[in-house]
Amino acid sequence: MNQLPTFRYAHNAASFCTELASLLSADDIDALAAELARHGAQALPAWLTWQDEHQAEIERFAAASPGERQRRKAWAEPMHRARLIAAALLLLQNGRVLLSLLAQYGCNIGPDNTYRDAATQAGWLVSQLFHQLPDPYWPFDDAPSPFA
Questions:
Q1: pLDDT (0 to 100) of residue 89
Q2: What distance in Å separates the CA atoms of residue 43 and residue 125, rounded to the nearest whole number?
């Protein structure tokens, strides 16, 4: 397996996460946390529901160029934009971790492996994924989670 493209993708994903995180100020993040926290005990379910309802838009936002993100009027409202950035950042942080694992350990699941070997390796990769993922609900390490 050629791991160079996967390594490059993992590196670029890390840079992309930094780019997206820089779109929000500390005040923006605090405002988003306060907006989410106002749901009280239902904050996390409300956030997950919002992500599910906006999945296609989150993916388009994540894949958009910086210029396209600026031009889209639907992405201009501050709180909606903050939600999109946070959700896209979560998506990309997860992708970065997966790409890093694949670059580091490769994926030897193929025709030369038994289904037992393939299932074992896939399970190991998933367990590593869970251990290395950041907070699955809040992408900002330096800001308190509204879900705590």
A1: 95
A2: 30
